[in-house]
């Protein structure tokens, strides 16, 4: 039996650099020896051997002592036809996800495929993995992609993504000050407008229903805005206004039952269309009328709302701008340009007919 031969370290570095060239990670030249050694966790000597081999093979060209090596026409032509692999980690692949989000993702995939990219979904969604960071990160690693798009990722997941060498775009999600690209609707000002209208109509028992990722470890920007507006108006706030709930249809049903058991809210602000529809069905069974008995606001934007009578108050934004932003980001990745910009799409509040004066029982 022949002994197992170990691959020399510099050959592994050669492969990693070739992979980077294929992904379009660098433009014009590769990073210097010290930077590559740090990034790949090898010695500078190993990197020099690898770079020398790539020069001999014609993938890189020397530019003189102390200067970075240029990417040659040979390497560019060798990889030009290789499609970039883009992995999308979805929040939810089932009916509980927003129809508008599904439409946006469909448009993103179509646009990227037209641009010659290989786009695919990770096998499991965040919901299926119960937002377990270890499982989610393993899923991204197993995807073996050149870039990631993470839909509505939690803060811990996006912190991990921002620390990796694989470029990542946060589609929605809570990036804060992380060095990671992000796009999605900016609903903060729209939420402020909505809350002020509710408060002006005498509402004080206002409940905002959002997923756990928007509540913890601390409320997100739009959630904080709603709570601050209530506080500034002298309304006492607490867990009632931003309740915890189990993110299943059954858990959502139990939440609604508990809310209407003793001190029913006079206004509900709901973050996604599936839960909005479930709420409307719940209210109909109880004989609770909108807006006579309760006001409703959706922070989502969907064509389904156009069919509701009275029209549902909601946040409106141009989803095409989100699609274009993601496509531009992927093209930048293809060229090897680092893009960690946060470019959000401004939203406007559309009052609709689902808001009325507070109903005092």
Give a structural overview:
The chain has 361 residues and is α/β, with parallel strands linked by helices. The chain has three domains: 9-79, Winged helix-like DNA-binding domain superfamily/Winged helix DNA-binding domain (Arc Repressor Mutant, subunit A, Orthogonal Bundle), CATH 1.10.10.10; 85-184 and 318-345, Rossmann fold, CATH 3.40.50.2300; 186-317, Rossmann fold (3-Layer(aba) Sandwich), CATH 3.40.50. Helices cover 41% and strands 13% of the residues. It has 13 helices and 14 strands. It has helices at 9-22, 33-40, 44-56, 73-79, 99-114, 133-143, 155-162, 188-200, 212-215, 221-232, 249-259, 273-286, 319-335, and strands spanning 60-61, 70-71, 85-89, 118-121, 147-151, 168-171, 181-183, 185-186, 206-209, 267-270, 295-298, 313-316, 345-346, 348-350. The strands form four sheets. Strands 4-3-5-6-7 form a five-stranded parallel β-sheet, with helices on both faces. It has a five-stranded mixed β-sheet with strand order 9-10-11-12-14. Strand 3 (85-89), helix 5 and strand 4 (118-121) form a beta-alpha-beta unit. It is elongated, with a radius of gyration of 25 Å. The protein starts with 8 loop residues before the first helix and ends in an 11-residue tail after the last strand. Mean pLDDT is 87; it is low at 1-5.
């Amino acid at each position: 039996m022949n002994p197992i031969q170990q691959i020399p370290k510099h050959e592994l570095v050669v492969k990693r650099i070739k992979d980077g060239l294929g992904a379009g990670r660098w433009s014009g030249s590769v990073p210097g020896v010290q930077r590559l050694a740090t990034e790949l966790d090898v010695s500078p000597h190993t990197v020099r051997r690898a770079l020398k081999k790539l020069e001999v093979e014609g993938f890189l060209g020397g530019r003189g002592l102390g200067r970075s090596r240029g990417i040659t026409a040979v390497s560019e032509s060798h990889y030009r036809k290789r499609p970039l692999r883009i992995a999308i980690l979805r929040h939810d692949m089932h009916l509980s996800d927003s129809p508008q989000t599904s439409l946006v993702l469909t448009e993103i995939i179509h646009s990227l495929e037209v641009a010659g990219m290989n786009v695919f979904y990770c096998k499991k969604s965040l919901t299926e993995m119960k937002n377990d960071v270890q499982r989610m990160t393993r899923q991204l690693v197993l995807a073996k992609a050149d870039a990631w798009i993470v839909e509505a990722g939690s803060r811990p997941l996006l912190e991990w993504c921002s620390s990796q060498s694989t470029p990542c775009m946060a589609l929605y999600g809570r990036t804060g000050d992380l060095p990671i690209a992000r796009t999605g609707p900016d609903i903060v000002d729209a939420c402020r407008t909505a809350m002020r209208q509710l408060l002006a109509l005498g509402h004080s028992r206002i409940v905002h229903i959002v997923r756990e990722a928007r509540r913890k470890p601390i409320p997100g920007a739009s959630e904080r805005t709603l709570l601050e507006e209530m506080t500034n108006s002298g309304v006492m706030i607490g867990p009632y206004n931003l309740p915890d709930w189990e993110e299943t249809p059954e858990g959502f049903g139990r939440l609604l039952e508990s809310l209407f058991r003793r001190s029913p809210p006079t206004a509900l602000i709901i973050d996604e269309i599936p839960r909005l529809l479930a709420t409307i069905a719940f209210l109909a069974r109880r004989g609770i009328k909108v807006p006579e008995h309760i006001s409703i606001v959706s922070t989502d934007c969907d064509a389904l709302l156009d069919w509701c009578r009275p029209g549902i108050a909601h946040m409106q934004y141009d989803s095409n701008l989100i699609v274009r932003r993601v496509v531009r980001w992927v093209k930048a990745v293809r060229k090897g340009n680092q893009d960690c910009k946060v470019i959000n799409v401004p939203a406007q509040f559309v009052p609709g007919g689902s808001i009325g004066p507070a109903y005092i029982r």
